[in-house]
Amino acid sequence: MSVGSRIKRYRKAAGLTQKQLGEAIGLGESAVRNYERDIRTPKKEQLDAMAKAMDIAPEALYEIDANNAREVLEVLFRLEGTLGLKPVETKDGIAIAVSPDAPGAQKSAAALKAWKRMRDALKAGDVSEDDYERWKASFKA
Q1: pTM, whole model, 2 decimals?
Q2: Distance (Å, whole) CA 77 – CA 16
Q3: Per residue, what are the HEC states of the chain?
């Protein structure tokens, strides 16, 4: 999903028009429209201001460059180093697990459990796709 698509999704979830979001961050409606259509790319400061106006974590709007296997591996290597995550083989394929002896393992395990609970609720129809996306975006550092 592109940055523009995420801006649009979270703006709508926050109940804001393009004009209202623009006013909240000191830009015009056309600027927001151009961001949402991926015609222009907002700077980090603008993304941070939009996230604040929509009451979501700024990271929910940031682009993650993982367009090929090497870039995906780089993201996974960072997760391994910072969160103690590791690949494991299961009967269904490859999964990610938390190394119990890694620093911060309890926090990583708790986060993965919360994510699984919400994914299960989505699959069961207990929450909508919009509710799920809003939940993901709600986490702030």
Answers
A1: 0.66
A2: 37
A3: CCHHHHHHHHHHHCCCCHHHHHHHHCCCHHHHHHHHCCCCCCCHHHHHHHHHHHCCCHHHCCCCCCCCHHHHHHHHHHHHHHHCEEEEEECCEEEEEECCCCCCHHHHHHHHHHHHHHHHHHHHCCCCHHHHHHHHHCCCC
CB count, 10 Å around CB of 128? Answer: 11
Q: Does 13 score more than 80 pLDDT?
A: yes
User: What's the rounded Cα separation, in Å, for the pair 35 and 9?
Assistant: 12
Tokens of 27: 């830009």
Cα–Cα nearest to 40, from 86, 88, 2, 95: 2
